[in-house]
């Protein structure tokens, strides 16, 4: 065995003091996970002993102490001067001959394995790096596409010297590490040719909410530095771990990124080994990974997380020559998994304003402040605490000012880029990948940065008021009455799942269709019938990466519903099929060509009456295909389907027959089908409806409208609309009793129990099986119901 070099099959996770976190992890995976199919490029570590031996041989310790002892982290100019001198001392130490010989012998072994022209990645690995409580990511330097003996030796000297980059010095001071208690090991490994394919970052935990059951993958074309540094807006993919491990193979959801540039190698003798070039337009418009690639990576993530027993942060690369996927780094995830799980903070805007720019949201918070646009490192000293940092992108050199920022806005980057990672560590909101933040957000203006509205982060003009709700997630007892949630926005599903709940009682398709699809389903199937040229252009743009409009609708709808199903797995998630009114359908892109004009759409062509009707049957077929994909391909059999506005028993039969025709037969693969109870006829004929459905969910809004004859859209007669009217309550009582008599589930998904405690008490006394509440009222109402249930004996 060499004295100063260890191949990956000779080191493991216990060797951090010798080879640093990065190399120890690569060695551990190379040894323990290769047989499980996790592919790691082979390589070797130059040990921390080699670093110390090099400095011993050169007598460099005393001069280094002279530079770094008593350094003042606040004096940025002095820190930069001392850091430069420290790097010069380390680089100037040179490599002793016996160390250089060992490095070159190991290089030749890699050439024997991969071929003489193998290119190398030379990466730093600090011995205190990647501890569960501190991420040293990006503090030292990485060198790519290194070839030839002289080039390798010079790069190793540069790599050793990078232990004293300004950012690394600053980081160690902040984290309380002794500069001389940290050493540097170097990893030298086969370079994965992702310049010819794609690369990125993945986590075995959802990074925003800390939801543990999802693998989150980001990627772009070319070398991975662009994704890590935030130079591009990458593609995003999610895979649900429990159903993946049960054998299902489906991508849960995906979001296409701009991917404007890709980093490739520069061939020849230039000092710069890489450069960015524009990504071809056709490549930008499609995903950088196939579903098969994403699922292979998800399998790697599950295996790596299971081996280490904790959430992990990994870098992956696809080799454009051999077409294979590789893991090139894995370390403990250090932010989402470290959060205390006892308090859920929810930020909510209390106003609005002009949206200056939008991008990917990071941090789920809101902050206001004065904009400070920073174009380059020389202006960092201008930054003042509490300002909003606006820049093209950020690098580890920017961290001293990022720590003082109220919020961060960047032109480039995705939710795993440097700016996003640091914002999460600091607990501040960031909007990344805005495209034009530096030109659209005026320097010196007061703005509000909101990351509390889902995946899209927004920068508002002016100081927009907001409030913060803190929910104590103590182990609350569960009431007899199931407390479920109303939820339509998949972007909020992972976070909302942390609330105490028994599942989702109402997941509406309308939000997903409005926000994720935007186009009328029949316009997607028949774009030739859409006369509006602007609408046609929008349809072409949205469906570009899909085989046709129908597959776009099915995939996007199934991803939205699947995300909610996965967030609450294995609890039931009741998904209501589309219940747009004709005027709402007409307002979708291309919708006007397919919808009738109705004087009162509220009691017109809506709900079940559309599903088997020739005017919409093709659209309903797409909805059924999407739900079948969620349950069968994604494996989310906790999804219960619900039919809205079923006027007559014969209509129920028609719809169930239509669903069965599209592969959704009640009872097959555990499929339960509920109906909304919102028409007096549902209550009157409940014995017949109960033969056809597994449960009723009372929609108190429509049931009130049709019991009292009040159009709930009309402001003029709003004073007559009251869910607590005795006639409405009688209808609700008859419905609950009818469900109990027939042995089917009874629930209520209207607004009433969230708004009126006396309505919640009425439902508890009736012995209703479940109530579905808005997320912001669930904790308070659950407490009230627990108290009520102690006083009330439920009906049998």
Q: Could you describe the 3D structure shown?
A:
The protein is of the alpha/beta class and 796 residues long. It is built from 30 helices and 30 strands. It folds into 4 domains: 5-191, ATP-grasp fold, A domain (Dna Ligase, domain 1), CATH 3.30.1490; 195-338, 2-Layer Sandwich (D-amino Acid Aminotransferase, Chain A, domain 1); 343-470, Phosphohistidine domain (Glucose Oxidase, domain 1, 3-Layer(bba) Sandwich), CATH 3.50.30; 475-789, TIM Barrel, CATH 3.20.20. The strands form 6 sheets. It has an 8-stranded parallel β-barrel, surrounded by 5 helices. A 7-stranded mixed barrel has the order 15-19-18-17-16-20-21. Strands 9-8-7-6-12-13 form a 6-stranded antiparallel β-sheet. Mean pLDDT is 90; it is low at 129-138.
Look at the helices and sheets and give the structural class: alpha/beta
CATH topology of the largest domain: TIM Barrel
Note the beta-strand portion. Answer: 15-25%
Helical region count?
30
- In round numbers, the mean pLDDT is 90
Tell me about the largest β-sheet.
Answer: 8 strands, parallel, barrel
Termini separation (Å)?
77 Å
Keyword list:
alpha/beta, Dna Ligase, domain 1, Glucose Oxidase, domain 1, 7-stranded mixed barrel, 796 residues, D-amino Acid Aminotransferase, Chain A, domain 1
Put the structure in a nutshell:
This protein is α/β, with parallel strands linked by helices.
């Amino acid at each position: 065995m060499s004295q100063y070099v260890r191949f990956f099959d000779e080191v493991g996770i216990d060797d951090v003091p010798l080879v640093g976190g990065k190399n120890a992890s690569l060695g551990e995976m190379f040894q323990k996970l290769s047989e499980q199919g996790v592919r790691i490029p082979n390589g070797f570590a130059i040990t921390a002993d080699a670093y110390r031996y090099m400095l011993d041989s050169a007598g460099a310790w005393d001069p280094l102490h002279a530079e770094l002892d008593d350094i003042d982290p606040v004096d940025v100019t002095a820190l930069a001067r001392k850091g430069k001198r420290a790097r010069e001392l380390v680089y100037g130490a040179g490599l002793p001959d016996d160390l250089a010989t060992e490095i070159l012998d190991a290089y030749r072994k890699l050439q024997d394995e991969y071929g003489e022209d193998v290119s190398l990645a030379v990466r730093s690995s600090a011995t205190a790096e990647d501890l569960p409580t501190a991420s040293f990511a990006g503090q030292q330097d990485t060198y790519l596409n290194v070839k030839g003996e002289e080039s390798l030796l010079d790069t190793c000297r540069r790599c050793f010297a990078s232990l004293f980059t300004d950012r690394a010095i600053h980081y160690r001071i902040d984290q309380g590490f002794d500069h001389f208690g940290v050493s540097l090991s170097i990893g030298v490994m086969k370079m994965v040719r992702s310049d010819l394919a794609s690369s990125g970052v993945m986590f075995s935990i959802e990074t925003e909410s800390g939801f543990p059951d999802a693998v989150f993958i980001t990627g772009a074309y070319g070398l991975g530095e662009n994704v890590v540094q935030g130079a591009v807006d990458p593609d995003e993919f999610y895979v649900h771990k429990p159903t993946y491990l049960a054998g299902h193979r489906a991508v849960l959801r995906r979001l296409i990124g701009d991917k404007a540039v890709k980093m490739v190698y520069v061939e020849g003798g230039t000092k710069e080994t890489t450069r960015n070039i524009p990504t071809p337009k056709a490549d930008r418009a499609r995903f950088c990974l196939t579903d098969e690639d994403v699922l292979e990576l998800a399998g790697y993530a599950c295996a790596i997380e299971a081996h280490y027993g904790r959430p992990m942060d990994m870098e992956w690369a696809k080799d454009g020559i051999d077409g294979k996927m590789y893991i090139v780094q894995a370390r403990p995830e250090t932010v989402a998994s470290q959060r205390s799980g006892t308090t859920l903070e929810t930020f909510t805007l209390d106003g609005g304003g002009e949206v200056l720019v939008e991008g990917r949201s990071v941090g789920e918070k809101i902050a206001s402040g004065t904009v400070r646009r920073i174009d380059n490192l020389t202006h960092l000293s201008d930054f003042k605490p509490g300002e909003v940092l606006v820049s093209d992108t950020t690098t580890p050199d920017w961290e001293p000012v990022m720590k003082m920022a109220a919020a961060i806005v960047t032109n480039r980057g995705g939710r795993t880029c440097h700016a996003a990672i640091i914002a999460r560590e600091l607990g501040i909101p960031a909007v990344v990948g805005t495209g034009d933040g530096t030109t659209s957000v005026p320097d010196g203006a007061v703005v509000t940065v909101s990351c509390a509205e889902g995946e899209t982060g927004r920068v508002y003009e002016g100081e927009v008021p907001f409030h913060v709700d803190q929910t104590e997630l103590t182990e609350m007892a569960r009431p007899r009455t199931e407390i479920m949630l109303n939820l339509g926005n998949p972007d909020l599903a992972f976070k909302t799942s942390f609330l105490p709940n028994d599942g989702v009682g109402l997941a509406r398709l309308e939000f997903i269709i409005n926000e994720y699809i935007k186009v009328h389903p029949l316009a997607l199937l028949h774009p030739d019938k859409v006369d509006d040229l602007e609408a046609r252009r929008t349809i072409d743009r949205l469906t570009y990466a899909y085989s046709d409009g129908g597959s776009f609708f099915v995939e996007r709808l199934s991803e939205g519903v699947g995300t909610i199903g996965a967030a609450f797995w294995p609890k039931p998630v009741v998904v209501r099929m589309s219940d747009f009114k004709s005027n709402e359908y007409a307002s979708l892109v291309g919708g006007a060509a397919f919808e009738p004009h109705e004087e009162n759409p509220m009691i017109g062509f809506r709900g079940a009456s559309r599903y088997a009707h020739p005017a919409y049957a093709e659209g309903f077929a797409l909805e059924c295909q999407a739900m079948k994909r969620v349950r069968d391909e994604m494996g989310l059999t906790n999804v219960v389907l619900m039919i809205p506005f079923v006027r007559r028993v014969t209509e129920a039969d028609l719809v169930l027959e239509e669903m069965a025709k599209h592969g959704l037969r009640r009872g097959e693969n555990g499929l339960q089908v509920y109906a909304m109870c919102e028409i007096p006829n549902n209550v009157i004929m409940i014995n017949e409806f109960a033969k056809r459905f597994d449960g009723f969910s009372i929609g108190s809004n429509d049931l009130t409208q049709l019991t009292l004859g009040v159009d709930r859209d009309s402001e003029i007669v709003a004073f007559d609309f009251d869910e607590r009217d005795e006639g409405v309550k009688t209808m609700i009582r008859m419905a609950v009793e009818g469900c109990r008599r027939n042995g089917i589930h009874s629930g209520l998904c209207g607004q009433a129990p969230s708004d009126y405690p006396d309505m919640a008490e009425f439902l508890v006394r009736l012995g209703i099986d479940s109530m579905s509440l808005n997320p912001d009222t669930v904790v308070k109402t659950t407490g009230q119901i627990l108290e009520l249930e102690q006083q009330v004996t439920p009906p049998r």
